[in-house]
Design a protein that fits this description.
The protein has helices at about 5-20, 30-40, 115-125, 150, 225-240, 270-285, and strands spanning about 45-50, 55-60, 70-75, 95-100, 105, 135-140, 165, 200-205, 210, 240-250, 255, 260-265, 295-300. By secondary structure, it is of the alpha+beta class. The strands form 4 sheets. Strands 1-2-6-3-7 form a 5-stranded mixed sheet. It has a 4-stranded antiparallel sheet with strand order 10-12-8-13, with helices on one face. The protein has a two-stranded antiparallel ribbon with strand order 4-5.
């Protein structure tokens, strides 16, 4: 039996190995192949389905063959985002994990603790030598963008098990009995295009904290795209504003921390700055505690 310190080191070691494998949602084959081989080395019988979900069966220890089967479940994909100015290709670049006495972090990118640490815990549990009944690990793909791995998982893999422990929670020592949900919407609108020779300006909403849209959605943080859209609406109430482009966000399930618009308008720069200052003040009255660093920037485009 491993003591707590050795157990923690084992989990971190398993997690660090995962950080070396790029695994954005929809591109999990490499990490799925790694998990298949690793579970086989542990002594499991492994199935890799056509969607790259992994189902690994570990027999019970001697004398525990009739104990209830327990399923340990997690997902192998991760949200891949980078800080502004950081060069990062989630399809090819590993995560650069950094470790301090208390925390694991990444150098300029998301860490992949959701759900890499859960998968590492499952791998560690399957290697522990304590007596146990039959164990089944189910590691799915594409949880972050629509749970398509779980949707395509055969229900047969849930049979003959009395317990299922989801290893994708946020806190230790807490049993989670509910979770955040999500809906994907595609919105289209016909736009009228025209040539314009009005002065162009680049307006940016930046400094927001962002974060995982499931984990942090209850923290009262602002959405940079919505914040910028409200500011543009306020500008349009004062004069004609022509939208050239509007971009923002990094992933469907991440709260947008930045957004940028290029507009053309006959309004002078001082008037635009005055209106943006008013919108910034309005933002901080609502979100200031959660997003104190939010600001608008204005530059000629």
């Amino acid at each position: 039996m491993m003591d707590d310190a050795k157990l923690l080191e084992k989990v971190i070691s398993e997690f660090e190995a995962l950080t070396h494998i790029p695994r954005p949602s929809g591109h999990e084959k490499a990490v799925s192949d790694y998990l298949k081989k690793h579970f086989e080395e542990i002594g499991c019988t492994v199935k890799q389905d056509e969607h790259f979900n992994i189902i690994a069966e570990l027999p019970a220890t001697k004398g525990k063959e009739n104990a209830p089967r327990t399923i340990l479940q997690g997902h192998m994909d991760m949200v891949c985002v980078a800080e502004p100015g950081v060069s990062y290709d989630p399809l090819t670049d590993p995560i650069k994990m950094q470790r301090t006495a208390e925390y694991l972090t990444a150098d300029g990118t998301s860490l992949g603790g959701d759900d890499g640490i859960g998968v590492a815990e499952i791998l560690t549990a399957m290697q522990c030598t304590e007596e146990h009944g039959p164990l089944r690990a189910i590691i799915t793909v594409d949880e972050e963008q629509g749970m398509t791995g779980a949707r395509h998982l055969s229900a047969d893999h849930l049979k003959n098990a009395q317990y299922l422990i989801n290893c994708d929670s946020e806190d230790y020592h807490i049993m989670t009995v509910g979770s955040a949900g999500s809906v994907n919407l595609d919105y289209t609108r016909a736009l009228t295009r025209k040539e314009s020779d009005l002065p162009a300006y680049r307006i940016t909403a930046e400094g927001l904290r962002g974060g995982h849209s499931g984990e942090r959605i209850g923290d009262g943080r602002g959405n940079a795209i919505r914040t910028l859209a409200l500011a543009l609406h306020a500008l349009a109430q004062e004069g004609d504003v022509e939208l050239v482009s509007l971009t923002g966000g990094t992933a469907r399930n991440a709260i947008p921390p930045t957004a940028e618009a290029i507009v053309r308008t006959a309004m002078d720069e001082r008037s635009i700055a005055r209106l943006l200052a008013a919108e910034e003040k309005r933002f901080h009255a609502i979100y200031g505690e959660a997003d104190p660093a939010m600001k608008f920037t204005l530059h000629p485009a």
